[in-house]
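Hey, I was hoping to borrow your eyes for a little while. For a while now I've been wondering how a particular protein folds. The fold is given in discrete form, as structure tokens running alongside the sequence. Could you read through the record and tell me how the tokens relate to the sequence? Take your time with it, there's no hurry, and the full record follows here:
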Amino acid sequence: MDSSVFACVEDLRGEGFAAALDRIAGEYGVTGLTVAAAYHRARDVTPHGRARVTVRCDGAHFEPAEDLFAGVRLQPPVQPGASDQPLRSLRRATAERGLALHGWTVFCHSTTLGTAHPDCTSQNAFGDRAAPADLCPSHPDVQAYAIALARNVARHGVDTVVAESLHFGFFDHGYHHERSFAPLGEIDRFLLGLCFCPACRVGAARHGADPEAARTASRQVLERVLGSGQPSPGALSLDGLGAVCGPAVGEYAAARAATVTGLAARVAEAVAAEGSRLVFLDLTGAIKGYADGMPAGAPAARDAWRIGADPGALGRQVPEYAVLGYARDPARVASDVAAYREALGPAAAGPAGPAGPALRVVLRPCLPDTGSAGNLAEKVTAACRAGATAVDFYHDGLAPLPALRRIPEALRSSPGTPADSRDPG
């Protein structure tokens, strides 16, 4: 079956491209490498890397193409070593080993760009530009940047451009060293991350929402919470928003999906013009299960509205859709994948209508999700039976080697693997 391992350029460079790819291609049984072509700031424990703690920078692992970024206000920062053209080297090296190369690209999350261009970032109900890392996908300059960046990555000959953060951000992931000693409920955190910048307000009004009523209601709820020290009750849902804030906020939040769908369609078209395909990466699974691998409540597909994603609408615009199966329980992975498959449409054309996009599921072979090879194998099987067409693994640089060695057993057990390749004996 189609599969890949996520990785970062600096980790592969530290090991040596040839040695790293020989290990990935020879040991893990995957068919591709998903490499961070443009990434964001982070500090990572890298268990088997040359550096055991790695600090990552915002920016692209290539020099921006002059013809694509001419006249574009936001210019991608350039990573150290970009002049060595690591993506070109990896394209050659993966081709020699029969591996696909996927260009993993972070779009609307950059502290460097947000700090330099605060008017392009999310603006909350109080008027604060309080999420420097979150570029707003409604902003015309952000959209121009996303299209140029996608084309530039595709131009390196990657098989797909894997689009991370091609949607709205959320409050709990807007900056580093985040602190809140005020008790905030799920609804309050969502409201603090809801963008009311001029471009968002215009877009929402165009789709029938009342942005001023929504902003006023959001601000009133937050003022009450921050003043009283009592969080808003209830779980976060569109109905819950309506109950706490009134209908205007829910309508405003739902209207954001048109922005994300429209931007994804334009980026997919730009990528196709360069001979590649777009994979829309939906981060809702991380919102629900990143910290502990124990997502609760509705399937992630039903909560994708939180980031402005409408899987059904996006499925008509992008050729591939990727979701995060960040869960310990194989049954939870199965239910999440099945819900996305239903929303996206069937994987193959039939009496029910045209085919939906290919559906990739990203699993973590290590903690906090996975404690054994058997558990990982169960989740791969569950994902495939629920409608996934590919399974990817996150992340070569972050997972210990013993955890990565669970991958081949998991793939051998999957329904998509030919029977004669499952038992090497």
